[in-house]
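pasting for ref. prot 1 ->
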Amino acid sequence: MSTTTSDRLDHEFRLVIQNQEVDLLVDEQLQTEAGGVNLPGFRRGKVPLRVLRHRFGGEVRKQVLERVIGEKAQEACEQRGITPAFSPTLLPAEEPVENGMAVTMRVVALPALEPIDFASFELERMVVEVTDEAVDDAIAEIAASQSRYEPIGEERPVEKGDTVLVYCRVSRDGEPVAELDDQETRVTLTEERGHPDWIEALVGAGVDETRTFMHTIMPGTQDGEPANEVEVTATVRAIEAEVPVTVDDEFAQLLGCEDLEQLRGLIRTRQAHGHGERCQALFSVGLMDKLAEYASFPVPDFMIDAEYTAIRDRMRREADSGPPGGADDDGTGAGDDDGTDQALEAQAEAGSGQEAEETAAEEQDPEIRAIAERRVKLGLLMREVGRQNNISVEEHELEPAVRAWASRFGPERRDRMHELAMQSPRLVETIASEVYESKLVTFISELATITETTVTLEELERREMEVDDAAVEE
C-alpha cells in the first residue's frame, strides 16, 4: 500500500530575497542584452549601464525576480524532499525584510508512494454485441423523431395521452427563467413521458386556452432541500396527431444514406461505438476503485472544500437547466443551448479561493464531501503515478482534445463551444485532466490482466446502475 514521509501534504515556507542579489542579476542580464539595444545617441552595444537601468531596469527586474523566486521555491522543495503537485502559491510575507523582500510559499506535495505493481491488477472489461433488434429499434426511434404533427380535425378539449403544442412563459419567484421562457414546445401528456404536472394542468383545456401551474424541474433531496420549481403559464396552440414516416430507402436517403442497408450499417457502427464508450467508462471506474485502495494518505481540507464547491455548483447548474416539459420535452431545444452556454460562461468566470473558503464555513453535505475527498485523493495519486512513469499531457495533445470536446455539441455550435472552452482556464484544465486520465488508464491496462466479458445491453445498464448506487451509498 502507500507510504508517506509526512502526515501532511500541504507545506508553508518563507523565502527571503535580498535586493543586492537581484540587483546583480539585473545588471548581468542588462549587460548581456546590451549588444542588441539600439538607442538614439549611442552606438549599438555601447549604451551605458545606467541608461539601460533607467530604460529597461523595471521590466528586467520583474523577470529576474520571478526567476529567483522560482529557483528558491524549487530549492526549498528539493531540500525537504517535496515534489509539488501544482505550482506553489506565493503570497507577501507579513514580516518585512531589511534590504530585501520575503514571500510565503504554500505548496501541496505529491504523496510519497511506493511503485504500484500494476501487473497484479485483475480487471474486467465488458463487451456488448449490437443486435439486429437494437438496430431496428434505433431506426424506429429516428423515424418517430422525423414524424410530422398535424392538428386533429375535431374541436374538443385536451385529453390525457394527447400531444399538444403549447406556448410557455416560465418564471421563478416572479422573474423569467431566461433559458426556458418565451418558447413553443410540444408535450405528450402521459405519465411515461414524465409529465404529471402538465397532465393535471392541461387536461380539459381548449385550444387558445391558458393554464398556469407549478412545475417541478428537480425534486427536493432527502435532507430537506426544497424542490426546484418554476411557474409555467401555457397556452394551448393545437392538439396534434402524429403522421408517421415510412422506413424505406427513401427515408434513408433523407438522412444522407444511399439506401436502408447503409443506414443500418451506420446505426450499427454508432451503437458499437456508444456501447464501447460506456463499457470503457465502467472499466475506468473499476480501475479507479482499485487505485483508491492505495490512496490512504490525508489530504488538505482546503482542496476538499474547493472540490466540494465545484461539485455543488455543477449540481445546482444542472438543476436549473431542465426543460419546462420535463425529461422528454420535444421542444426546439433552444433553452438547453442557452443553459449550456451560461453554465460554461459561469465556469469561465468563476473564482476559486473565496468560494472554497465560503464553502468551508457552510454545513456541508457529507455525501458530497466524501465524493470530493475521494476525487482529490485519486487526483493526487494519479499525478504521482504519472510522475513515476513519465506520463503527461503534451501541448500538441490538448488542442485536439478541446476540439473533440466542442464537437459534442454539433456542427452549428462547436465553434462557439470551442471559443468558450479556450476562454476558460478551468475548463481547459478539466479537459486536460480527462486526457491525462485516459493515458493513465491505457498505461495501466497494458500491464494489468484483463478479462473480457460479453454482456447484453440490459446487463450493462444494470451494472451502470449498481455503480451509481454504490457511489451514493459510499
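and prot 2 ->
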Amino acid sequence: MKRWLVLALVVVLAGGGWWFLSHRSSTTTATQYLTSTVKQGDVTATIAATGSVGSASAYSLAFGQTTATASTGTSTAQGSASTGTGSGSGSSTSSATVATVPVVVGQHVAQGQVLATEDRSSTAADVASARASVATAQAQVQVARANLVSTQAKISSQSSASTQLATAQAQLAADQAQLAVDEQHLASAKAQLAKDEAAVPPVPASVIAADRLAIAQAQQSIARDNSAIANDKAGITTAKDTSVTLSANAAQLAQARAAVTQAQNQVTTARSQLTTAVAAAAKTTITAPVAGVVTAVNVTVGQAPPSSAAVTMRSDSLTVVVQVAEQDVPNLKVGQTAQVTVTALSQTVPATVTALPTSASTSSTGSGAVTFPLSLTLSSNPAGILPGMTASIAIVTATAKNVLYVPSTAIQGTSPDNTVQVMVTGTPQSTPVNIGLSTNSSTEIISGLQSGQTIVTGVVNPTASTSTTGGVGGLTGNTGRTGFGGGVRPGG
C-alpha cells in the first residue's frame, strides 16, 4: 500500500513540475513587437558628406605673369614673363628694382588693385617715342594720299588723244604758213640788197648794212619756223601713239599708290612698336586679377624682384570639397543646391554643385569604402570663414510631398511585392503595399495602408542575449527593398 502512495506522490510532483516549467516557458517566450504608426508628411532623400573649405582659385603673381591654380589642383599660365625675369627661383637678373609694395599679407584687395610696382623709368620714354612714331607715320600717310589724289586729278585733266592730234596738226599748219611768210621776207630782203648794191650812183653803206640785217633776221625766223615744224610733227606722232601717254600715266599712278602703301605699312609697324612698349610698361605693375586676400608678399622696395612669385593671393570665392559615397554619385547634378555647415562657425549657408566627380579619391584605394570628391561653391562667405575649415553638406536629391509614410524598417519583401506587418487586435498581419520614395529612415506608401494604422517596425525576443530590432526582426526579413535615395516607384 505504501508503494502505491509513494508512486502516486511522485507522479503528482512530476506533473506539477512539468506544468510549472511549461507555463513559465510559454510566458517568457512571448514575442514583443516594436511598433509605429502610418503618418502623413514629406519624405526627403538627402546626400550627406563631410569635407573642408578651400579657395576657388589661387594666384601666383610676378611682374608680367599670372599663374592661376583652381580648387581642383590644376594650373594654367596666363600672360608671359616680364623682360629680364628668369624662370627659376631667387632674384631677377634685371636691373629694375621694386618701387612700391602697397599691400601686406592678410589684406583684402579689390580686383585691379595695384599690389606692387617696378621702377622702370625708361618704359615711359619708350611709350612716348613710340606714340610720336605713330603720329609721324600717320602724317606721312596723309601726304601720300594727297599726292595720289593730285596725280589722279592731273591725269583726268589731260585732253583726249583726238583733241591732242587735232591741236598738233593745226599748230603744224600755222608754223608752215609762218615759214612761207618768212621765206618770202628773206627773198625780198635778198632782192633789195642786190638792187642796192647795183645802184648808180652807189647807195650809202648804211643802207647796204640795213639790207643785210633784214636778210639775217629773215633767216633766223625761217630757222625758228623749221624747228617749230619739227616739234609739231613729233607732237602729231606722239598724239597718234596713245600708248606712250597711257604708260606714263600708269607709272605715275603706281608710284603714288606705292607711296600710300609704304606709309600705311610704316603706321602698322609704329603701332606694333607702341603695343610692345605699352606691354613692357604694363609689366612693371602687378594688379589683383580678382577680389581676394593676399597670402604672401615676396618683394621688398629697393630690391630686385624675384623671378618667381612676387605676390600670391586667393580669391574671395570659396569652395567646399567633400567625399561622397559611390552609391550617391548617380544622384548628383551640376547646379544642385546644398546646405553647407561650417563646423567651427556653427553656421549654415547655401552652396551650389559646380563640378561632378570624374574619378574616385586616391584615399579610397585599399579601404573598404570608395568615395568621390564633389566640389561646391558657397553663395556667400560667413564672417570668419577660412580655407581648411571642416564643413558638412546636405543635398536634397528627391522629395515626396504630403504623402503617407512609415519607418523604412517596417518594409519587408522585394519590390513590387513589398509588405508591412499591421497590428490587428494585437496580432501582426502581413499587408501588401506599393511603395514610392524610400530613404534610410522613411518610405513613402502609395497604397495599402491608411494614416494612423499601427505597424510593426521590429521585435524584441526576451530569451535572446540581445534585443532584435529593424526589418521586423524574425518575421520575414527586409531583402530587396528599394534602397536609400532610390525614389523609384515600383512598376517604373
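Confidence is low (pLDDT under 50) at residues 18-22, 24-28, 72-94, 465-492.
The CA atoms of residues 198 and 371 lie 144 Å apart.
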